[in-house]
Amino acid sequence: MHRSLVRSGVAAAVAFALFQLSGCGGGGSSSTSSSTSTVTATSVNGTVATGSAVVGATVTLTDATGAQATATTNTQGAYTISVKGMTAPFLIVATDATGISAPLVSVLAKLPTGTAPAVANVTTLTTAIAAMLTASGNPIDLASTTALAKVTLPSVQIATITLDTMLTKILTQNGILTAGFDPIGMAFTPNHTGADAVIDTVSVVSAANGGLLLLSNAAPGTTIVLNNQTAQSIALAAPSAAANYLEPLASLLTACAATGTLNTSCTPAVDSAYLESGSTDLAVAHGLTEATLTGAVFGSPKTLAFFTRNGKQLALVQLPVTLESGTAAGVLYTIAQQLSTPVTLANGTQLGWDLIGNQSQFAVSIMSQIQRRTFLDSKLNDVNRYESGLKIAIPTTSNPTVYSASVTGPGLAAPVWLMQRNALGISSLGLSDLSLSAAPVSPATTSSNTELYRWSWQSLSSTASFTPAASSGYYSAQSIDASTVPLYSTYTVTFYDANGAQLGQSSIINPGSPLNAAAGSTVAWPTLLPDFATQFLTPAGSLAGVQYAMSVTWSSLVNGQNLAYPVTSVQIQAYPGTGSGSTTAIDGFSIGAPNNTSVGQYQTTVFAAVNAAGVQTCTNCPFPALTSGGSRLVQLGGGQNGTTFYDMTQYND
Predict the structure, then answer these.
(1) How confident is the model at residue 37 (pLDDT cuts 50, 70, 90)?
(2) If phi over 0 gives left and psi between -120 and 50 gives alpha, with beta otherwise, what is residue 193?
(3) What is the largest CA-CA distance in the chain?
(4) Overall fold of domain 7-226
(5) How much of the chain exceeds pLDDT 90, in percent?
(6) Class for the domain spanning 247-355
């Protein structure tokens, strides 16, 4: 059990700490005589980092009146913004240009006196402080001028003290005094030591109902809810490994990528026993090719969680990757293991860990997923809603002998079944559209055409309520509370052949936060542009006829800022009308990165019967016309922090 402090009762300790913090770059000031004018800073600078510097991030500073100023971070994650003529308090949001990191947030309650620039870092830690200034725990709520006006120097200082208390063990481990540590106003270098090592150790992740949780990678089972009621006395655990323990892997993997050998011959970075999703090759294991990652640059690994399995010390890590072209490929999630005997590298560095993979002989991944479903028709059963659960991806091309699979684990009251689909343009198993008690046998297929299992749903209408069919295989029998599902849960996946015979099992970790559908109200969703939605997704639209390819356009602007998750996949799914003579759905996916047509607006082309890998699965198979009995759906997909997001807009005729 965790003991909680009452914020109003910290008295003397708080008063002393407030005195210490008042002189920091976070906004302290000294008293002056009435005859002396006070000079305050006219610029704000700081560092944007998640342990590693966030390069090329867009930093947007909003003042108390709603006025904004922007800057871009340099190669060290540093930025400078002029605030001359602007009014504190300030909200500072840093958006990662690569989309790898979710937006980071910081606040500056007051400009310090003097001519020196004010310091306002934007990091994991400052995001936690900002979250503790809101009732919801969502720091983006401070974008409202009404909410921002309530940010005061004492409120920021108390949140800082609360955070420092929780970080006591981690701060001590890195040689930092707890009293007076100011994550916002204390300058630091993103080099995985000191304050940056603290940032490396902790994570802020999504809470089940929205908002944020704080945790240490040393004990990911202990999480702290961040909001304006947070006052827990628990001190997060400090890991036994130094923050930079995996740093040598970045240069070793980059060297291997230069020669296109990201497999078990990439020693000592990749273990001789490496196996992940059925492959001994790091690229192939993550749905890529050696050619794709040839010349790629690997960034500093981020450890999400340390854990023990079968007596071995392991770590769930994410590897940021930038392609040779300079385009960010995202992050690869994998497992590292501690070596019984460290390896001494040519430069004398000791490498105590290497990559071992998830040890699955089958290609499979499980992630958290949340979706927003919007219907443009007026059918009673088509209720706008949020849904959440798991994305269970089992590609058929990588698993030629697999006909079906069952999944068990936290949040799943009964086994979840996936099987071969009957749709064209899809190359992965789909969730069964019926509840199953045993492995299906060929030629049975599913018409659900989804790999998104739903364990929670929430209607968005005050007059209509959504209830899934009791026999559906891709909805939980009853909505669950995802807050009861542990972070980084492990799921057992059992694979079967076409005759229903078991082929094997794999243990797969979900790197994302388990979410309730209610969290959908806090997600920054992209939105289809109205003209496209009207033309393609309504029967009377100019694009309602047969289409072989479709240009899809959308906006990622939320409250004037480009905050929506990065859309990396666009899918169209179309069912033929009742008079077409066909019952087969046609799916199609976009290929390559979308085009940024203007600030916050994007475009891409989706081709009929082309799968997510860019392979044409059927010739002369266009999207059918939207006619009576038919249906069209456009899905904007993307991911951050181990969670996949889907914005679905649909019309059922």
Answers:
(1) low
(2) beta
(3) 90
(4) Immunoglobulin-like (2.60.40)
(5) 81
(6) alpha beta
